[in-house]
Design brief:
With about 325 residues, the protein is of the alpha/beta class. It has helices at about 15-30, 40-45, 55-60, 80-90, 105-115, 140-160, 175-185, 200-210, 230-240, 260-280, 300-305, 310-315; strands at about 5-10, 35-40, 50, 95-100, 120-125, 165-170, 190, 220-225, 245-250, 285-290, 290-295. The structure holds 6-O-phosphono-beta-D-fructofuranose.
Amino acid sequence: MTQGIAIMTSGGDSAGMNPAVKCCVEYARKQGYEPYLIYDGLRGLIDDHIVPADRDKTSGILHRGGTVLRSSRSKRFFQLEYRQQAYDNLQKRGIGQMIVIGGDGSFSALNQFYHDFKVPFAGIPATIDNDIPGTEYCLGVDTALNQIRQAVDSIRDTATSFSRAFVVEVMGRHCGYLAMVSALACGAEVCLIPELPYDLDKIGARLMEEKNNGRRYVLAIVAEGARMSDHFTRWLSETMGLDARLTVLGHVQRGGSPSVYDRIMAYKFAVAAVESLKSGQTNAIMTFANGAFGSVPIETVTSSKYHLDQDLLRLCAPLSC
Ligand code: F6P
């Protein structure tokens, strides 16, 4: 009997998930698997939202943002009785392997499922936060950075027209990657991220000197995880005497058609995931590091902390003081 393989997306959506789904299905089929799709993430796995991956389900999805499989966060999956229900859903269709496209929370959930029922899975990292240990790239990051770049370029237009200070808060629950890269790419004067200490006195002195030398507007990019956006905007206004505004970019960063880079990375991650399962790996997470695709055991992801690229951090450090 042909081996069934199920593909799902889980946790926060990100651009690149759809091309990854498409390529997982097509490549798995070429390798002799019978591909299935799980809709609604872990909730759908429990509630049996599982269908054969007919061609019409994956055509015309490549250019779409978000995930056509939809996603969810499921508290029920923490309970064994619901994981048993999920396992029964797979069993009755002859599905013996899974590919999950998502973040570390989803990988941990699937790892628990693997320990319960021995269903091997391969994880494809996808989160705009880019904070999964072991991989330098997670699907969706390039598209999110381009969304931010476009928004910040627009904000600069109005900031220069009014001689204002703009604070732009970008996503990153615990990680400053998006803020760091977009501050550099957009030429921000200030960048505040959880990974770098900041010094308001020094920032103030620097901005004042620049103002005296003709600077007419200020652009600051602040990571959500730094929890500083409101405070810093008030400080710019009350201490620095600037006409300051705060823009929180929010979920706009998670949407949009996947960039070319995200589409190509999605394809390569998908091939790596199918090959990982074919080679007998049981619970590995696909990685892109030092220019090559590979994988790490799930334990590497769950037990280590993500570190920002040191070269980029050094470039960004002057923007925090
Ligand atoms: O994990 C990705 C992320 O976009 C974070 O940067 C952000 O804090 C969070 O998801 C938002 O989650 P939700 O969509 O549940 O509000």
